[in-house]
């Protein structure tokens, strides 16, 4: 339903690019996440899709209709895209129901539609409240209801949970995911939090310095990351340098680069490659212990283990099946 080709955007006349030669396609009815560090171009990409910016090169098609090119630019309000922002952007002087009616004033059965979406987000009983009489999570659900009310063909959420604390965040994330799936709308969900992305997205797009570096199903991103960078986004990763390879006596291909995930490191356990080490420092983390380790060949490593009782001398190792390999 969304087709993007060779999309680029520079804010300084080509000196630097916020987005560089990005191409991808999205199917209908799924939830997609765009993940990247701050400044990687996430907001630029979705603003281009929404028609709030114009591209320097490339094209955007929505439902096989060209909406953006160098020559053509369909206005944002004609693209039928719903938007949920980080800050809820509700009108403070309007009650919940009025906030929702505002965006569908031309609809024939607008009252009925407002009722439906308020039900969908579970806030029917609060329709006469003002935004300040709601919690942050409830306000975000109203913002979602408002975006869904006109039946958009695409829903875009830009960092929708950044303003919420951790507990509420996980709860609201699941709730919003349920609502999106129930409404059947295609959704793009922007986040810098990989846990959020893994929890809700069928497919994830990774942006790095304005480039699309991988687009894949969540599980594939974890097991088959395209680079050390992508691997490290989904948990602590240790790059297997030449020195580490020699310490573990695991010679690997020289034209590739390799890494191992922290969770695949075994302490005091049998595995394919093992070496002896001394624990220099232990930090209690609650769910586990962080260890600063000096291998017997002199290399230092930091790993997190579930063990709580660790002697000063340990063995550390990993299995060959868990080694990630990248062509650099
Ligand atoms: P993200 O949403 O991933 O944090 P952005 O798309 O906001 O990234 O920004 C990508 C790059 O473009 C950054 O280097 C940012 O400073 C720059 N940028 C974004 N918006 C503007 C703008 N309106 N004017 C100039 N530079 C911008
Ligand atoms: Mg942003």
UniProtKB/TrEMBL annotation:
One of its GO terms (biological process) is quaternary ammonium group transport. Residues 2-234 form the ABC transporter domain. One of its GO terms (cellular component) is ATP-binding cassette (ABC) transporter complex. Gene3D superfamilies: P-loop containing nucleotide triphosphate hydrolases. CDD domains: ABC_Carb_Solutes_like. InterPro entries: AAA+_ATPase, ABC_SmlMolc_Importer, ABC_transporter-like_ATP-bd, ABC_transporter-like_CS, ABC_transpr_FbpC, Mo/tungstate-bd_C_term_dom, P-loop_NTPase, Transp-assoc_OB_typ2. Keywords: ATP-binding, Cell membrane, Ion transport, Iron, Iron transport, Membrane, Nucleotide-binding, Transport. One of its GO terms (molecular function) is ATP binding. Transmembrane segments: none annotated. Pfam families: ABC_tran, TOBE_2. Signal peptide: none annotated. This is Fe(3+) ions import ATP-binding protein FbpC 2. It comes from Planktosalinus lacus. The lineage of its organism: Bacteria, Pseudomonadati, Bacteroidota, Flavobacteriia, Flavobacteriales.
